[in-house]
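Why do we care about 3D structure at all? Because function follows from shape, and shape follows, mostly, from sequence. That is the central idea of this module. The next example makes it concrete: a single protein chain, its amino acid sequence, and then its structure expressed as tokens.
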Amino acid sequence: MQLRYNYRLYPDADQRVALARAFGCARVVFNDGLRARQDARDQGLPYLCDGELSKRVITQAKLTGERAWLGEVSAVVLQQALADLNTAYRTFFASLSGKRKGRTVGPPRFRSRKDNRQSVRFTKNARFVVTVGGKLRLPKIGEVSVRWSRPLPSQPSSVTVVKDASGRYFASFVVETTDEPLEPVPDVASEVGIDLGLTHFAVLSDGRKISNPRILRRAAKKLRKAHKAHSRTQKGSANREKARLKVARAHATVTDTRRDWAHKLSTALIRDNQAVYVENLAVSGLARTKLAKSVHDAGWSQFVAMLEYKAKRYGRTFAKIDRWFPSSKLCSACGVLAASMPLDVRSWICACGAAHDRDVNAAINILAAGRADRLNACGGDVRPPLAVADADEAGSLRGAA
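And the structure:
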């Protein structure tokens, strides 16, 4: 299993210049490689293999006057830029042939110096070193100060230096780990099912409701003010760049706050429960509705991804329930499936007399479905069938749950 550890970097003025040079050289090599392959395709020539492309846009380019400055940065940075291009092409071809699951991926696009995110990657061949004093030594850049928020569990296989839109620098280490839990915690008896929503971010099967922080909504006033100030500045001026940085920093604060909140909640749920079950929501589809802003603000995908990798890290069980499972319409007491359940119905009473809170009932059903699937995988009995509805009950659409 591979894990990524991010740390804040604090380069000095000379190191920032060297990093900007590395960003630019990697971007130029990527664009030159993309242009070479596009020209070969337009001229009806064979597809340029990786070795031939590297020889043309790096080795031979350094001998020309136009690209002689490519030798001022580490060769590994240039090779990794071409590796990114090759990966983008392989992903594109796999998507065209149907070997790659998910939505269709387009061909690689040219990179711009105005992109919000600039990055370069150093592998072990670059011989980057974490010094005894706790600094990160990078080839042709120097020893950069790092804020170590936590120790690395093992020697990293690569490090990516990233500059975000707000001008901050980060070092992202990739660490190879075994399949064994990195930080095993004592076993507990409790298990939990989670129903994600917008009114409440999460409703647990034990009845607890976690309020939606609505971080973007709370920061809307500050963001609106920063955007207005940016729109009033003259294009190309120094004041416009200052205003752009204020906007970027305001958005970075929202992103960091949401990530920190999701980390704390996911860690607490994983530590306190032996098994965690969630519903596999179609977030990309919900993000195309009128609730798109609220869906993006909630950050469900990020939260579920945290639950998944932390379950592996701490030795817990994690599973996703089929998104078509009727968790809201199914009575958790008797198993009868309701004919329909509009979204404005927040509580209902089953024919068996059980009174249900819609979200708590859904969380209980998610927990039961997760336990049943887990037993089935271990060779237990299959999940019992749903109770037969009355003959006069009408069906409902799959998305009505």
